[in-house]
Design brief:
By secondary structure, the protein is mainly alpha-helical. Helices cover 71% and strands 3% of the residues. The protein is built from 7 helices and 2 strands, in the order αααββαααα. It has a two-stranded antiparallel ribbon. The chain is elongated and about 80 Å long. The mean pLDDT is 83.
Length: 197
């Protein structure tokens, strides 16, 4: 924690060699797993960009690229042909990526609330432009788009019989899941202090 704070505040650091002597008659108070896990949790709180935001953004971008590259037909690269299975993987990556980004934002806000995080560009942007109402409207619009697609597929089944529309169904389910994620995360973020009065 001291090293991280020193780096964040751009302090000079140096190494001072010391001699350690074995303790006699006293059991060690450090527990490897428990104390190591506590240190790791602290590192996650201090570096949400590297642990959540950047990996989440990579997952989300790759997932969306896979979905839309294969939406209108198989993607052929050299002798390889990519179709429905990479698209399913893309939908999975998109949902996981967005959730990971949301975890990162929540970590940043929580870290700021307990004094670990300074005012970053991300937090300033969120404070300036994000509101509960905007998040809910955006999430509901995406959710509604997914529901409309799924309703269209269901209506097709009722009128024409069962027709395979796997790619369109993937789009509908992905949009529905992403919309729900945005709606509930908007409410949660507003509860942990994103809106300042």
């Amino acid at each position: 924690e001291m090293i991280i704070n020193a780096l964040k505040n751009k302090l000079k650091m140096g190494e001072v060699p010391i001699t350690l002597h074995p303790s006699i008659g006293r059991k060690p108070k450090i527990h490897s797993f428990r104390d190591g896990w506590r240190a790791l949790r602290l590192i996650f709180l201090f570096a949400p960009n590297w642990h959540f935001m950047i990996p989440g953004a990579i997952f989300l971008v790759i997932g969306l690229l896979l979905i839309f590259a294969i939406l209108n037909g198989p993607l052929v690269i050299g002798s390889m042909r990519f179709d429905i299975h990479p698209m399913i993987f893309g939908a999975f990556l998109s949902i996981i990526g967005l959730q990971t980004i949301i975890f990162g934002i929540q970590s940043k806000i929580y870290s700021r609330s307990i004094g670990l995080e300074n005012e970053s560009k991300t937090l300033k942007f969120i404070d300036k432009y994000f509101t509960l109402e905007k998040g809910t409207v955006i999430g509901f619009a995406i959710f509604l788009a997914g529901i409309i697609i799924l309703s269209y597929i269901f209506n097709t089944w009722l009128t024409l019989g069962f027709v395979q529309q796997i790619k369109l169904m993937l789009i509908g389910m992905t949009l529905t899941a992403i919309g729900i994620q945005i709606i509930f995360s908007s409410w949660f973020l507003s509860m942990i202090g994103i809106e300042k009065k």
